[in-house]
Structures are given as C-alpha cells and as structure tokens.
Amino acid sequence: MSHLNRLFFALELPKTLQQEIVRWRATHFSPEAGKPVAAANLHMTLAFLGEVSAEKQQALTDLAGRISQPGFTLRLDDAGQWPRSRVAFLGSRQPPRGLLQLAALLRAQAARSGCWQSPQPFHPHITLLRQTDSALRLPAPGFSWECRITEFVLYASRVEQGRTRYQPLQRFALKKEL
Ligand code: 2AM
C-alpha cells in the first residue's frame, strides 16, 4: 500500500490577516483561555479528507480541478466555541453563498471518492484556540475583517518536532467575478 497523507481542502488567509487576528486574539482572550493556534496555521477548512493514498489524492485533485466556482469575499465578524471539542473559533454571521457551494462540492466529491465525511452540517470556522477552558468568555461582537478569496488549497497536515504544520500542496483558482 502506498504512503498515506493526512489531507484537507481549505482557504488560506493572507499573512497580514493572520497577524491581525493573532494580535486581536492576544488582547481579547486571556492566556488561560486555551492553546492558541499558530498564526501560520489559521485557515478555514472546506473538506477534511483524512488519511489518503497517492492514488486517491490524484483522483481528488482531478475532481477539484474541474470545479468552476466564482471567488467571493469572506467576512469574519463572529466568534463562537464548541465546549465539547474545546475549541474557540472565528466565523461569519452570514457565510457567502460561494463559500457554502464550494465546501458542498468538495465534501460531495470527497464522499464519492470514499473519504468519510462528518454527518454534521458544514460550519465554516477558523479555529483560534484548542483545549479551551470551561470558563472561556467570548469577545463581544463588533470586530470584522474581510478578505477576497480567489483560490482554495489542498493541504497536508504534518507533525514536525511535535508541532502541527499545514503544508500547501496544490492551489485551485476560483473564477474571477464579472
Ligand atoms: P478544526 O480546526 O475544527 O479542528 C486540519 O486538521 C484541519 O482539518 C482542521 O481545520 C480541522 O478542523 C480539520 N479536521 C480535522 N479532523 C477532522 C474531521 N474528522 N472532520 C472534519 N474536519 C476535521
């Protein structure tokens, strides 16, 4: 059997936005709130693929390459937490339709290719903190960042020297809006 890679499709955030979010996080969450995700690892997952062989990766990227969807503007103006998985995240109060369509396509392609998909509906989010404290307080609303999304990315999740690193493997352009 060929080597397996832990893969997922996601939206990359511009470095400047990653830095801004990290600065905001430092002033809006206490150090005890949870374990902060590294700036370079802030991303929005579209479809998680699991442990995938080189052959399946090829089939999945062939399918993803056929997606013809327009780009969209992502607004991050919401924060939430999942106490059970002990995660705090950023999200959108009104996720753009383009984002939901893109994730639905990628998740359907993954399911058809035999990748297990969670039965939970897609909830677009950027994980900010893990192992959150049960007393975590979310920041008050009033923040908002926007970024233009022109592509999606296939990432491999690797652990290097005890640290998780997301390595971009392949980029897929979205259509320019008229
Ligand atoms: P999370 O940030 O909500 O934990 C790499 O691990 C990315 O894939 C992360 O964005 C992570 O989401 C997501 N991920 C990991 N395991 C997953 C699973 N079983 N189902 C869906 N997404 C998963």
Search tags:
alpha+beta, Cyclic Phosphodiesterase, Chain: A, 4-stranded antiparallel β-sheet, 24% helix, globular, EC 3.1.4.58, RNA_CPDase
The largest β sheet comes out as: 4 strands, antiparallel
CATH class: Alpha Beta
Gap between N and C termini, in Å? 46 Å
- What global shape is seen? globular
Number of strands: 10
Helix-residue proportion: 10-25%
CATH architecture: Alpha-Beta Complex
Tell me the strand percentage band.
35-45%
Structure description:
With about 180 residues, the chain is of the alpha+beta class. The protein has one domain (about 5-175): Cyclic Phosphodiesterase, Chain: A, CATH 3.90.1140.10. The chain has helices at about 15-30, 55-65, 95-110, and strands spanning about 5-10, 35, 45-55, 70-75, 80, 85-90, 125-130, 145-150, 150-160, 165-175. The strands form 3 sheets. It has a 4-stranded antiparallel sheet with strand order 3-1-9-10. A 4-stranded antiparallel sheet has the order 2-7-6-5, with no helix packed on it. The longest helix is centred in the middle third of the chain and has 16 residues, at about 95-110. The mean pLDDT is about 95.
